Every structure is written in C-alpha cells, then in structure tokens.
C-alpha cells in the first residue's frame, strides 16, 4: 500500500523567509504532483515531476523529485502573503493509474 | 468557462435521503474521479472511471455508487445518506495522453447530512 506523508502539516512563517515542505512516499514511483488549495476552494495543479532529478520552478516556488530517496520537496523563497494556502503532494500509483495524496501542509505567511 | 463543473455546489440533506452529485467536463478527458475531503485531511478516492464501460472502486466506496453516463459525465450517488458522509466532494479528470496522470479538479460540492 502506497503511503504519502508530508511534513510539516502546519507551517507559519514570516514574509521574506525561505522554507521547505517535504513529501515522502513509501513505494516506487517516478511521478509526483504538487497542488495548491485555497480555503474552501478547489485544487490547482502547480507542478508535475516525471523523473528522478526533475526540478520545476514557478515564481517563488520550486519543486524537486528524488525517486531513489522517495522524496519530493517544495521550496518557498522569500515568502509573500499570497502564497498562504494548503499544499498537497500526490504520488502516482504506477500500474493502477491513480493518485495517492498526502495530508496537506497548511502554510500561513504573516506580514 | 470552467472545464470541470459540479452541481450542486452546496447541499444540505437529511439522514436516509438519496442524493446525487453530478460532474461534467469539457476537457475531452477519458478518465474521471470522485474524491472526498474531510476538514484538515487529504483527499480520499471514492470511485474512478477510465471510460464509460470501466468503473472502479477506490479506498472508501462503501455507501456510494457512481454512474458514467457519457465520457463527459460522471455522477456520484449516496443511496441513504448518513451524517459521517458530511464532507467536501471533488470530481477530477485526467487524460491518458502524455503518459501521466495530472488531474484537474472541479470546484467541489459541500455536502451536509443532518
């Protein structure tokens, strides 16, 4: 059974600081997705990581994938308030063609 | 225009009632999914469908049923609603083209069972 664990689950940080959210998973997969969810809203796709060593960047967010360590990171650089949201990672259960989601990391960025 | 739509957006019902949630998509995707999200938790897969004739149970299918009426439509039914089915329900779609499973989500249906 594929398990996906994110940490931290809650993160409160100040504007201008850097931080990293971690996503660990328990079985082999080389496909991982990051989503953003604002309160009461739907999930928005942020990054699609499809191979070992993949790195994607969009603005102040950068995601990477290490399939050997079964680890993905979402790095936030010089945080701004607009990045406050819940971030989910999801791992593709290969062969089954379905995603298993982490618990989500609720990120709050304070002025 | 939204690519994935869900109706209703909010619904309050009583224990024992039958309720249907509907999902439509204009993305032309072959795969559709129903998820449930409880406060502070991730998403749990209820059912998924790879085409009109292919329906599969997810992690938490008990108490739910689905119908794939067409490639673009996927409905979720609660035959006899119970309070612990109170949750936010999301429909999602994806395409087999490209060889990966990036999913696109609808706006969600907030369901309350009293």
Structural summary, described in words:
The complex is a heterodimer of chains A (111) and B (114). Chain A is built from no helices and eleven strands. In chain A, the strands form two sheets. In chain A, strands 2, 4, 5, 9, 10 and 11 form a six-stranded mixed beta sheet that branches. Chain B is mainly β. Helices cover 0% and strands 55% of the residues of chain B. The relative contact order of chain B is 0.33. The model of chain B has no long low-confidence stretch (mean pLDDT 94). Chains A and B meet through strand 5, strand 9 and strand 10 of A and strand 5 and strand 10 of B.
Number of helices of chain A: 0
Largest pleated sheet of chain A? 6 strands, mixed
Oligomeric grouping of the chains:
heterodimer
* Helix percentage of chain A: under 10%
**Gyration radius of chain B, in Å:** 13 Å
From the alpha carbons, calculate the radius of gyration of chain A and give it in angstroms.
13 Å
Low-confidence parts of chain B lasting 5 or more residues at pLDDT below 50? none
- Terminal-residue CA separation of chain B: 33 Å
Helix-strand pattern of chain A? EEEEEEEEEEE
Terminal-residue CA separation of chain A? 41 Å
- Identify the overall geometry of chain A: globular
Question: Helical region count of chain B?
Answer: 0
Mean pLDDT reading of chain B = 94
**N to C succession of SSEs of chain B:** EEEEEEEEEEE
Percent of residues of chain A in beta strands?
Answer: over 45%
Look at the helices and sheets of chain A and give the structural class.
mainly beta
Give short descriptive properties of this protein.
heterodimer; A: mainly beta; six-stranded mixed sheet; five-stranded antiparallel sheet; 11 strands; 58% strand; B: 114 residues; mainly beta; seven-stranded mixed sheet; 55% strand
């Amino acid at each position: 059974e594929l398990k996906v664990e994110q940490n931290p689950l809650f993160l409160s940080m100040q504007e201008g600081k850097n931080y990293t959210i971690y996503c660990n998973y328990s079985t082999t997969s080389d496909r991982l997705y990051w989503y953003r969810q604002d309160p009461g809203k739907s999930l928005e796709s942020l990054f699609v990581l499809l191979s070992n060593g993949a790195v994607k960047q969009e603005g102040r967010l950068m995601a990477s994938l290490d399939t050997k360590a079964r680890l993905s990171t979402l790095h936030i650089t010089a945080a701004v308030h607009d990045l406050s949201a819940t971030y989910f990672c999801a791992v593709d259960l290969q062969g089954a063609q379905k995603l298993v989601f982490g618990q989500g990391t609720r990120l709050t960025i304070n002025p | 225009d939204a690519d994935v739509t869900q109706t209703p957006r909010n619904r309050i019902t009583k224990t024992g009632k039958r309720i249907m949630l509907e999902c439509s998509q204009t993305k032309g995707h072959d795969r559709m999914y129903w998820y449930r999200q409880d406060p502070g938790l991730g998403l749990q897969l209820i059912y998924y469908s790879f085409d009109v004739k292919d329906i599969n149970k997810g992690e938490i299918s008990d108490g739910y049923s689905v119908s794939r009426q067409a490639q673009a439509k996927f409905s979720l039914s609660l035959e006899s609603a119970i309070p612990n089915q109170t949750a936010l329900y999301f429909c999602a779609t994806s395409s087999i083209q490209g060889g990966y499973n990036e999913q696109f989500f609808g706006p969600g249906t907030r369901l309350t069972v009293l």
